[in-house]
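Request: Show me your protein:
***
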Amino acid sequence: MGRLKIVYPICCGMDVHKDFVIACIATTNTEGVTEYQSRKFYTYTNELRELKEWLIRNNCRDVCMESTGKYWFPIHNILEDSCRVVVSHPKFVKAIKGKKTDKKDAQWIADLFKHDLVNGSFIPPRDIRQLRDLCRYWVKLSSYTTGEKNRAQNCLTVSNFKLDDVFSNVFGKSATAITTQLLEHPGEKFDVAPFVDKRCKTPIEKIQLAVDGAFSYEQGEKLKIIRSHMESLENHKAELESLILGIAEKYIPQIELLLTVPGITDAFTAIRILGEIGADMSVFETSKKLCSWAGLTPQNNESAGKKKTTRIGKSGAYLKPLLIQIAIAASRSEKNPEIRGKYLSLQKRRGGKKAKVAIARKILTAIFNILLKIEPYNPTLYVKQDKPPVARVISQEQAVSILANMGYVLDPSLSLLRTS
């Protein structure tokens, strides 16, 4: 019968809370006997420094704690210079219900970690963490802007201004100029021709009919506040972008490599990807591990020989939508026949949604190899070779396999013909 191997003779398990942390050092001697010593530290900076000194005095360089909200960040920041810190998802270190105390939780984490039974989360370097935080904040500001645009459109709709019927972009140059005129001179009739750009294809007469509405005082004031907020958000986004670009200067070689990937045409998109996965791909064992971490692989949930679900996971809340957008752009472009051909083939057999996820995984696999091998994207590696067999004679099983790859489904009621 196998025995659990002690990987870390001296390690520490931590039960992290908002106001305090329970640390338990587990020390195993040469005879296999483990001794525990626990202490409680408050999460003020001076006490966290005292925690660091306590670990050093006890020769403890390996620490494990669960990722409790944002409360583990300050502890990790202080300990990462002197210790190897492993942050684990709570589901991997959860104790048994009914026998849970803070002290027992810390001891349980130490025991699991001592035998290397804890799956650590990917924690990027400090500069990548800062880049990730700023990029995610930029995404939030963009979503706020989208919400304000929807509210502005609601104000126009309620007031019976049909600008969305005559302009492709209600927040474009011409529509913005007309909206400003409507807000500054409420109730006044005016000619829209001077406000319409000459490239606009919609007839002036139709645009004139679209502005035949009326703002109430409340809707007009609300729209002014919305537009002011949108302008403020755009200014803050510009400031944030300059800060992000300054931090990303050291990763210019990696950004240039990512710009060779189909669907990535903007340097800011490449920076957002780096902010999520980092520039060092050696932390992921294989590209499959990276795709699983990004939530682009089916879940394994099987019991009694039955698969309960094969849906993709929920992880990668920021990276996965970005890769899906890149996959959509790449599959629509005629410049990338290897991507577009694969997408159209999958779309026929599995549907558009699964095809997009598959292309996103394909692109992330390419990104993994590009950053790992430090070489640009090579489309010839992803072109399917559809060469006929040399002998021109194939078996029935090979013929069925070829037809299945082309999307055909074999009728189960029919059996293969037997040749004499």
Summary: The two ends are 54 Å apart (CA to CA). The chain has a mean pLDDT of 90. Residues 126-158 form the longest helix (33 residues).
